[in-house]
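Chain A, query sequence.
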Amino acid sequence: MKLEIIYKYFPDLSEHQKEQLEQLEVLYQDWNQKINVVSRKDIDELYLRHVLHSLGIAKVVQFKPGSAVLDVGTGGGFPGIPLAILFPDSNFTLVDAIGKKIKVVQEVIDGLGLKNVRALHTRVEQIDQQFDFIVSRAVAAMPTFVHWVKGKVKKKSAHSIKNGILYLKGGDLTEELKDYKTVKIYELSDFFKEDFFETKKVVYLPVKFHG
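Chain A, predicted structure.
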């Protein structure tokens, strides 16, 4: 069941990608015993709750070769690491303000031999670079998050959707998103049939953010 759940929704993976996905669990189990970055329950369901959840973003947009993606508050490396495996020709920057988490992320990157990822122990406000997309997994309410990443999205878009924020969230977001007229919500239950995704969403906010 574990890895099959990924193959079910992403049937075109290369052998190399499959090997990397296989290694993920081994690496996380090993590191989780030293530094607890993923809850015990979640480690048992790593592919469902973390990997497939992260790859929900790939159902909204396919990152093009050469594109730059920033993962803010990456924690144990989600959604950035699964996306980096899926899109080996895109460049990913994973940031977290907590040093021990970034240490694990760096070890996983090295263990998988990912050449398209860099992990930074910093606050997002200190990053002086622009990206095609900014991804994250519910690290803050949207207004706070938008404030953090102000000016970090490239204006010129090259994808099927405009550059912007792709945010993995759950629950009722009415209040939180009421000021964003251009926001679009993708229900992950439209893509993935497991119960876990019933209330999970990808919130997409294009580059202008307001209006």
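Strands lie at 68-72, 91-96, 117-121, 133-137, 164-170, 184-187, 200-206. The mean pLDDT is 92.
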